[in-house]
Design brief:
By secondary structure, the chain is an alpha+beta fold. The chain is about 30% helix and about 40% strand. A hairpin with a 7-residue loop joins strand 4 and strand 5. The longest helix has 14 residues. The relative contact order is 0.22. It comes from Pseudoalteromonas byunsanensis.
Length: about 120
């Protein structure tokens, strides 16, 4: 069996992130990079069977809703919640989520946090 790897690159969203008063009142940009592994069985690869593949559009829509509707004090909580959404599907064997918070520090392009999970 082959290992399929889905990468969702630079998903740009807006959410409430941070604990300072101004961060609690207006949404900020975040950039998500997601990697999801699952076994690509022969039905997927040889027979082009959609039902045997992980639907990355469904995963992405759930992540978008979670992030855009959420209020997070910590980057760690945001990343952990997105990671949980990514490995919700029973066939996922590994997932990694990196979230960047652009302009979080004055002299840096961004601050990011990465978490991963494996079955």
């Amino acid at each position: 069996m082959q290992n399929a790897i889905i990468n969702i690159t630079n998903l740009r969203l807006r959410t409430f992130i941070g604990f300072n008063p101004d961060e609690r009142e207006k949404k900020q940009d975040v950039v998500l990079n997601i990697e999801i592994h699952y076994p690509a069985d022969t039905e997927c690869i040889n027979h082009d069977e959609v039902d045997h593949a992980l639907n990355y559009k469904t995963v992405t829509k759930a992540v978008i809703k979670l992030v855009e509707d959420g209020h997070f004090l910590l980057l760690e909580k945001l990343v952990a919640d997105v990671l949980s959404e990514c490995h919700r599907h029973h066939s996922v064997t590994y997932a990694k989520v990196k979230v960047d918070k652009p302009h979080a520090l004055r002299f840096a392009d961004s601050v990011s946090l990465t978490l991963d999970w494996h079955k």
